[in-house]
């Protein structure tokens, strides 16, 4: 075992030294793990998993039930946890842990915890190892989609034990001494599950063991001194029998084989992007954020021995055929995570759409935040965006009629129990054109703005499906409802009462209240589908740009009276020295790109680079706020390539400023796209010219077709802004107001 650790580390170091690094070698799974409740640098944990894996694994530094299950500043490990946690705010479900212990056969978390150091830790997406100092024990693990294999090297001079912790008295553990097998199930969860929810697990050891102790939540087994223990673990949400089938992923393979297979799978998916650049830190940031973009939503489906696909329904508790995905919040991920998957990983994105069909059939609603079932959190009806963007890009489900029925249903109803699924206040919105501020529905202005974009998404989907104009025109009209909240006196969006009067008093810097985790200055730009309409409301391009400039020139002042304390999103805005721009939260992440709609693309180029260089790093404090299931990561991936999907549901990507000298994209359709920016450096953030396959391109956007056709897009970079390129009206990206 000791030789195994040395061999892996030596091989990694040798490859890097010879310039033979693969994409996986640049990934830092600890990026964003230096987070707390008060200040998020990502709120991530080291996910040791296969892409979109049903089960993740992580070293556990926090106590059971702590959403911050791994923090970089911790100094003790309490277990190795099978986790399904999408974020600390949602916490976990179906979790259990194992922990090697040497010496006394203790089971309590405090007693079994061991000091560790990052100096004796190797953390990669497909492999994790660490030295447990208090137990003089080395642990390595490598996962498959539904299983994992552990290699544990115990000391020869102490008693050797293993603690299995199911964390919940409703859970169960059973021991088969003769078969060297431990089985059971975990019912531990934080909500969003039916009554019959269970995560059935099986643990098989190559080394015989005896039971040292057992209670309602923990089992301690003992091995001979100096044991090198190989554990094979798998689980199932369907049944104990299916858990045994899932165990076949690791049952007949060695530890080294599983490590190799995981490495190959990650390198294949990460390797769709081949970067050529001298800035190693930027390359590390790119692949680390790309890794985070390929974790959620996770696969919740399983495969029987005949190759049939089934899933446990987190909505009705039944076992049903077909795909199912979970652990994502569309309020975050509709913006760039799903567009990223639709463009570069359509084979997985298409399965996700099939999963949405099943979600609607099993629950009567499309998801807005699922973990694993519907959760009552966040706002909006952004499932409409996720469905529309996929379909217009050729990644729709087979049964689009059901998805059409689903998006229409969600626009006119609300889940009777999960109030954030569907549309709260839809009756007012459909009648008045906005959700009133004074009727007891919180975040009313934010809801109105998101519903308007969602209505546009439904309209776009209806057009693409060939629905009659008389059926879909109402959604086009309602997509203009954002205008009802525009206060021309302040040139900002503002809450409005049921009688048509403005919310008063009004402080544009007040977080929450009429808005969601932001203020009016942030949410005013949430008109993804019609920036030209917003430009017109603001009196034209000059006034629009002036207000957009103010995001960065207004000091980071804030009013936190709605919350009663400084929430971490506010603090993250305050400390990064970018005025009132709050990149650490999602509502404003597209705003920089809006300069392209107003004829000043050089400002988008400047600020995109500013954010990438100041607010991201491949380090434990590498994010400027919540990473949020791939959204904040996908922003970086797109932006580093040089473009961004400001309005999912269109076939356009708004141009920013490419980060690298060259990126070769190996498209899933078999074509190759080269994004070239010769001589690109930190001081050459401005674009003075673009050619697409040797033809000059003066627009401020690229099209979906241009990207999928492959070829070469050449960016001419400069240290000085080009005040002539992209300034004409026709150079602007799509806006509903410009539709003929």
Could you characterize the architecture of this molecule?
With 740 residues, the chain is an alpha+beta fold. It is built from 20 helices and 34 strands. The strands form nine sheets. Strands 6-7-8-9-16-13-12-11 form an eight-stranded antiparallel sheet, covered by helices on one side. Strands 1-3-4-10-15-14 form a six-stranded antiparallel sheet, with no helix packed on it. The protein has a six-stranded mixed sheet with strand order 17-29-30-34-31-32. A hairpin with a 5-residue loop joins strand 29 and strand 30 (672-676).
Task: Describe the protein's topology.
Layout: H1 2-17, E1 56-60, E2 76-77, E3 79-83, E4 96-102, H2 109-112, E5 114-115, E6 121-124, E7 127-132, E8 137-143, E9 147-153, E10 160-165, E11 172-176, E12 181-186, E13 199-205, E14 210-214, E15 218-223, E16 228-236, H3 240-251, H4 255-270, E17 273-276, H5 280-293, E18 298-299, E19 301-303, E20 309-312, E21 319-321, E22 325-326, E23 328-329, H6 330-333, H7 337-344, H8 346-363, E24 369-370, H9 383-392, H10 400-410, H11 426-432, H12 444-465, H13 469-478, E25 486-487, E26 492-493, H14 520-523, H15 531-537, H16 541-553, H17 568-575, H18 601-615, H19 631-641, E27 643-644, E28 652-655, E29 662-666, E30 672-676, E31 686-692, E32 695-696, E33 701-703, H20 704-709, E34 711-718
Parallel strand pairs: 30-34
Antiparallel strand pairs: 1-3, 2-5, 3-4, 4-10, 6-7, 7-8, 8-9, 9-16, 10-15, 11-12, 12-13, 13-16, 14-15, 17-29, 18-22, 19-20, 20-21, 23-24, 25-26, 27-28, 28-33, 29-30, 31-32, 31-34
Helix pairs in contact: 5-19, 7-8, 8-10, 9-12, 10-12, 12-13
